[in-house]
Amino acid sequence: MSYFENDGCQLHYEDYGHGMPVLLVHGLGSSTRDWEYQIPALAAHYRVIALDVRGHGRSDKPQERYSIAAFAEDVAALIEHLGLIDVHLVGISMGGMIGFQLGVDHPELLRSLTIVNSGPEVKPRSPKDYLEIAKRWTLSRLLSLDSIAKALGRLLFPLPEQGDLRSKIEERWPQNDKRAYLSSLDAIIGWGVRDHLQRIQSPTLVITADRDYTPVSQKEAYVKELPNARLVVIENSRHATPLDQPERFNATLLDFLAEVERNKDPKPC
């Protein structure tokens, strides 16, 4: 269990394996624990670093207004703390947003970028978008974390054979700090860097579930705006693809990382 400090906040991270660094960034209300099916597979080939984002997991939960830009600065500070030149960053959902922000603000820190079930903006474009965002914002404040956990479990893992995954959500989600969770949700709403995607020159893999919250077509649209990106669709998956399709996800990610390494001159850690 390791910690470092940035901007007065103590942040928890885990460090496994050896080789080129792969930095894992989780989503809203999650933690390093949700990479449990990826860390062993990746650590067999790479140095794997998993961060608890500010306000999550074992990291501090300061009573302040959070932002995606500040989360990205925490990631940049971790990279500096570890003395790394650049990293393969993998981010899911909110973690993908943090990856986009880091790529825009500090493109030199990315050896590659993998975005999982995410996008470069959360800005309402239609009355339906405004309604959905308002609904989520309101329900997150009205419902207890236990109620949210049960609803999420059913939404993310609806199949009978996914009972263990539902149990994980129902156990872990209520462990969040409600205030920090809401502040992180507020950081997401209205955020966006889509107008600056040309700054991200590193090889980029966008992985989307076929049954994610947002349609595949939305990912196809922004992938075209990235200088060096491709899209992979994983079938029979929802928003938590690393958990509900770990073997396919891991194989896709490992193939991409290996290809990036073949096409780059090795850089020392």
UniProtKB/TrEMBL annotation:
| Ranges of residues in domain AB hydrolase-1 | 21-244
Q: Which domain of life is it from?
A: Bacteria
Q: Which InterPro entries match?
A: AB_hydrolase_1, AB_hydrolase_fold, AB_hydrolase_sf
- Stored Pfam families: Abhydrolase_1 (PF00561)
Tell me which SUPFAM superfamilies the record gives.
alpha/beta-Hydrolases
- Gene3D superfamilies the record matches: alpha/beta hydrolase
The GO terms describing molecular function are: hydrolase activity
Sorted keywords for this record are: Hydrolase
Q: Among the entry's GO cellular component annotations, what is one?
A: membrane
Q: Does the keyword Glycoprotein apply?
A: no
Keyword Hydrolase belongs to the record: yes
Q: Where are the transmembrane segments?
A: none
Q: Write the protein's name.
A: Alpha/beta hydrolase
| Species of the source | Metapseudomonas lalkuanensis
